[in-house]
Amino acid sequence: xxxxxxxxxxxxxxxxxxxxxxxxxxxxxxxxxxxxxxxxxxxxxxxxxxxxxxxxxxxxxxxxxxxxxxxxxxxxxxxxxxxxxxxxxxxxxxxxxxxxxxxxxxxxxxxxxxxxxxxxxxxxxxxxxxxxxxxxxxxxxxxxxxxxxxxxxxxxxxxxxxxxxxxxxxxxxxxxxxxxxxxxxxxxxxxxxxxxxxxxxxxxxxxxxxxxxxxxxxxxxxxxxxxxxxxxxxxxxxxxxxxxxxxxxxxxxxxxxxxxxxxxxxxxxxxxxxxxxxxxxxxxxxxxxxxxxxxxxxxxxxxxxxxxxxxxxxxxxxxxxxxxxxxx
Length: 328
Known about the structure:
Blueprint: H1 3-10, H2 22-31, H3 33-41, H4 53-70, H5 75-79, H6 88-97, H7 100-104, H8 112-123, H9 134-147, H10 151-158, H11 162-172, H12 183-203, H13 214-222, H14 230-237, H15 242-257, H16 266-282, H17 293-296, H18 305-319
């Protein structure tokens, strides 16, 4: 397909496709468009966000079947071929011959690139190595000073995954305050969020006020808590890790949206928990990632989805023994 046609056809499945680079669009047209159309015929929507347990299991199945088909020794050699320079040519030939891209994505209604990254995360033996020691943290700072954002190189030097070293550096790069938020920190956070939302709004095509419906206004409000660039906000605040910024912003929004009411106190709090559990049960989903948290927030009140997810997590870990070993 020519580029304009590819953009037009992909836009049905990826609404933000025109914001992507031309090379990414060409790759997606080759790897994903036929798959997306096939899923559409089956009435299956293309998904984004966190992978469900069912999808993770499908990825594992796809990888194991490809290893069996090609005789490649293990998933690390398949997904991290550059770690094995002596075998790289043979493995690359087998991947091309047996259509690796199509096989690994089989049965999963997501863009191929996201499936591939998820597979690498699942099968990277360097991905789950516990807490960083003091010595490792010092090494990470030193390697970053030399190599900058070359996380691939740094991950190889530290025998940790790319994501792990990038996230850990974000956490340790400056003095992080773990105590109560000061008024000045809160002001910095609110200013930082305002700046990134304003910048984003300027880049988007603004509709005239006469065209804005109630639905448009609701979408505008969602910009206050959905898909914010937290690492950028972290840099603007300066004294807090990005997760702390996200949690604090959710807390501020919840207070504003509920006019300061304490939703989880006393009898009201118990009733809210009961409502949340009942609504979760009524949804009949198999995995927490299939829950429509936006819709579920109505079970508690007019609150951000992150607030509801956090409350569900606290209920789960405090009330369900051995919850990690149980299905949803």
